[in-house]
Design a protein that fits this description.
With 425 residues, the protein is an alpha/beta fold. It has 15 helices and 15 strands.
């Protein structure tokens, strides 16, 4: 089990790529390593590295390589995200994709050629650096593909898959080392409008990536320390694994944090501890990468309020109680035995539109939470279309299936064999 952080530079946030400061980077990485974490995920801003489709700034590419090397000084592995893209409510698309040069970033042949060139350039600079954990195509690039983005680059599910195949293929051909992955925010699992679908997450890339945030309705419905909040990351990891055709495929909890807009600040440590313990009880979870390393400085303006208090370290460089708690959990859990899979699984009917039922407040989500609360351990999830695949079920260690009836708004019924238990909201 790996434990790391999404690296948010203490000075200048991600705008620090404009004024790349190796000493500041070294100071931040030394502090992260002091928390006994083993990796960082870094985010070079795309529009700064490739300001023109034909211009990949050598200094920008070199800075990425330097950041990887500095991390190695402190025993940290590095995952590099490429198409940034979108971070903390801000979009950072290069100008050759917007306004007068507006192109669909997923389908336009000119845009695709530029993106592929950038991914290959990053892959090339990462090749041969032994502490490269991997390359992710970008941070939650699926948010560009549909509403609620105000100016979506609309595509079909087939076009989304074609984009993944092309860019993941380009990344692999450069052989940067480590994992080649892609990341999506939770609309992939919860929103019927989203063209990046669960099968894309589970069948493309070397691991299935999940980002868990409870400001999506989970905390509003269940409370900051309610079951639906502190078990959300566990639930999302189990839900993602339902689409795995290979029982050994791993899930990476690449983003999870404590948003103090919906979790009381006094409860932040407890939320972190309960969230991490529940998530690491999921079989085949490869690691937890906390969002984020450092708070956004208050003199940086126009961020949503939640963004200013997500760090394990405050803007002045002081480790917060959440930082100490995450460090203690990393020490304790890193060498713990891998958990056995839960023998119980809920069946998700994937023959009908299902994503709304999987979202917080949906019938399937609420049924899963009630079973987890009742049994003490979160169940696995099995797709209805695969419920008779005995080899797959055996490979996942599933011994008992629970049927979920989510049609009635007043109650959710969970049935096993001939018995049924009605779980009332």
């Amino acid at each position: 089990m790996r434990f790391g952080v999404n690296y948010t530079p203490r000075v200048g946030w991600f705008h620090s790529w404009l004024d790349f400061d190796v000493d500041a980077l070294r100071s931040d990485f030394e502090q992260i390593a002091s928390l006994e974490l083993d990796h960082v995920r870094i985010f070079p801003l795309w529009h700064l590295i490739q300001p023109n489709r034909g211009m990949l700034r050598a200094a920008g590419i070199e800075a990425v390589g330097t950041a990887v090397d500095v991390a190695a000084e402190f025993g940290l592995d590095v995952n590099v995200d490429a198409l940034q893209g979108h971070l903390s409510s801000f979009d950072f698309l290069p100008s050759w994709l917007t306004t007068w040069h507006g192109r669909n970033l997923f389908t336009d042949p000119v845009a695709l050629a530029g993106e592929e060139a950038y991914v290959r350039a990053l892959g090339e600079v990462l090749t041969g650096r032994p502490n490269v954990m991997g390359l992710t195509l970008g941070n939650e690039t699926n948010q560009f593909a549909a509403r609620p983005h105000p100016s979506p680059h609309e595509i079909t599910a087939a076009e989304a898959e074609a984009w993944l195949v092309r860019l993941l293929g380009a990344a692999r051909e450069e052989r940067p080392g480590g994992l080649v992955t892609h990341a999506a925010y939770d609309a992939t699992w919860y929103d019927e409008r989203q063209p990046f679908v669960p099968a894309h997450a589970a069948e493309h890339g070397d691991e299935t990536i999940v980002h868990s945030w409870v400001f999506n309705g989970a905390a509003q419905r269940h409370g900051g320390l309610g079951t639906g909040s502190v078990r959300h990351a566990e639930y999302l990891s189990q839900l993602a694994a339902a689409w795995h055709r290979d029982p050994a495929r791993r899930v990476w909890l690449q983003e999870v944090g404590v948003p103090t807009t919906v979790v009381e600040p006094r409860d932040a440590v407890e939320f972190l501890e309960r969230t991490v313990r529940h998530a690491t009880d999921v079989a085949n979870l490869s690691g937890v990468t906390w969002w984020c390393s450092h708070d956004v400085a208050r003199d940086l303006l126009d961020f949503p309020p939640v963004e200013y208090d997500l760090g394990l370290v405050d803007e002045h460089g002081r480790v917060k109680p959440t930082g100490r708690a995450f460090a203690a959990l990393a020490r304790e859990l890193r060498a713990a035995p891998s958990p056995a899979p839960s023998p119980v699984a809920l069946v998700l009917d994937d023959a009908v539109p299902y994503r709304h039922a999987c979202a917080p407040g949906g019938g399937f989500f609420e049924a899963w939470m009630r079973v987890a609360e009742r049994d003490g351990r979160g169940p696995q999830v099995v797709l209805g279309s695969r419920r008779h695949d005995e080899q797959l079920l055996a490979g996942r260690g599933v011994e008992r299936l629970l049927e979920v009836e989510v049609g009635a708004p007043a109650a959710t019924t969970v049935a096993s064999g001939g018995a049924a238990t009605t779980l009332r909201p």
